[in-house]
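pipeline stage [seq->struct] | target=Lipocalin family protein | organism=Hymenobacter lutimineralis | residues=151
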Amino acid sequence: MKHISFLLLLLIASSIVISCKDDDSAGPVKTKAEMLVAHDWIISGATFSINGEGTDAYDTYGDCEKDNFFHFTASNHTYSFYENSKVCTPATGTAGTWALNADGTQLTLTPLNGPAQVRNIIELTATSLKATTNARAFGNFVTITESYKAR
């Protein structure tokens, strides 16, 4: 009986130690800004929605557009949109500044030449970024949703 009581006590003690173990293996939680600047972001998908009707648009992108990527810097909040190995004619690269709103749900890109573009962030993780842009074209309300993966 002493043997069973000892084993039971040992089992309970070990379960308490295991359940109370500090789990710092994941490291500190990154802010959305930290996740944004941690990687370059290459496009991996796109849809267009006109007046609520959506269509897959990624297949309409040229090969020279599918390898383009964003690079965001933390120090001065600048971004560059680079052509990769397949360059479009004319080239589509651009640069400017970026800002996140207080709750990290909107990313504003202000190119060096042109008006600011607000993108509503649907998802931003360590490996994926998904955002929408709204516009009006020919009297229609258009939503462009683009997905990016970390590279």
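stage status: PASS
auto-comment: Helices lie at 2-19, 32-37, 63-66. Residues 14 and 20 are 10 Å apart (CA to CA).
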